[in-house]
Amino acid sequence: MKAGAIILAGGKSSRMGKNKALLPIDGVSNIERIVKSLAGIFAEIIIVANDEEAFEFLNLPIVKDKVKEKGPLAGIQAGLLAAKHETNLFIACDMPFISPQIAKQLVEQSEGFDAVVPVIDGKQHPLFAVYKKSLLPTLEDCLLTNQLRMKHLIERVNVNYRTEEHLLNKEIAKLDQVFYNMNHPSEYEEAKNLIGK
Q1: Which parts of the sequence bind GTP (predicted)?
Q2: Is the pTM of this model over 0.70?
């Protein structure tokens, strides 16, 4: 597939109290689960992380935010600048049940758009989404003007929104689980309980 995958692991995990990317799920760190899910589809996988040492064990390229304390937009900027491909899937490091099938679908549905963002139960998921290098000027303007929420970027570019009816298929029975993310210790415990269910 002529696209890259970029894992955002630069957050502070302040609500969790521990590095979310490294929390074990069924004996494997969350970020390793994500890498294994994506490895068969994407030739290039990049980690965006400000703590490079924590992720050296993955043997993948690691890039740091170019601008500090600017949240996920800074991570997306760093990833796009480092990527070899125009089209890139971005995934937050706290999503243990991502679907390689959906990752592939999102990339395939990006033709003619700057971004592809899933909308599940009416909620946008901009951190399991596709972004192209074409939106870098707009993204960098958002950073310069401190418009740091994901919606500030998404509202200004050409987005293909994909709902349940576009994404659901026979291979994916639990779409809400695919987009599950962990911010608090209780959500981590729930994620461990969801394994195998």
Answers
A1: 8-10, 20, 65, 94
A2: yes
